[in-house]
Amino acid sequence: MLNIYLVRHGETEWNIERRLQGWQDSNLTEKGIEDANALHDHLIDIKFDAIYSSPSKRAFKTAEIIAGERKLEIIADNNLREISLGDWEGKTTLEIEKLDPNEYYNFMKAPHLYNRKDLETFVHVQNRALKTINKIVEEKKTGNVLLVTHAVTLKTIMTYFGKRSLENLWDPPYVQNTSVSLIQIENDQPNILLYGDTSHIAAAY
Fold this sequence. Notes:
Blueprint: E1 2-8, H1 13-17, H2 30-42, E2 50-53, H3 57-67, E3 74-76, H4 93-99, H5 101-109, H6 122-140, E4 143-149, H7 151-161, E5 180-186, E6 189-197, H8 199-204
Parallel strand pairs: 1-4, 2-3, 2-4
Antiparallel strand pairs: 1-5, 5-6
Helix pairs in contact: 2-3, 4-5, 6-7
């Protein structure tokens, strides 16, 4: 069987400020680094056969911390990037709500209707993320693979494997920073074993 571990990056400065990051970036906070270290310890006994990460520094740094002493190259994969948000990137949610109330409503409450000109939709993000997932499933067949990505990207993946519509993208559980989701694939049949697990954080404090 193949186990695919999906992790959201650690907490960042812009997360605290409630700024949307998209393809832009901000540094991990002290808590973000501590939580990533706690996840490293939590997953220490798992032998990963491959580690993939979004190239965004917040995700790649999280992947490096989790990888720790494992002698594995972290594969940067553009398909695991966050959704591209154009001129929303770097702005707070309050600023965006005033700037573009209709599309912000769609983004948060009706994701299947969200559609800003020349920018990615949730369908686009899901399709590119699944290209990488499907490639891994085809190539690996068995073992353990770690993917470090972002909230929207991760939610689109889990929505697909949960056989749910993107209309229900934001349904619980919320994927917190460094949360772990686990999809197990056996005989071509996927099964969600974990979704947004943060037990490593509670155990570390």
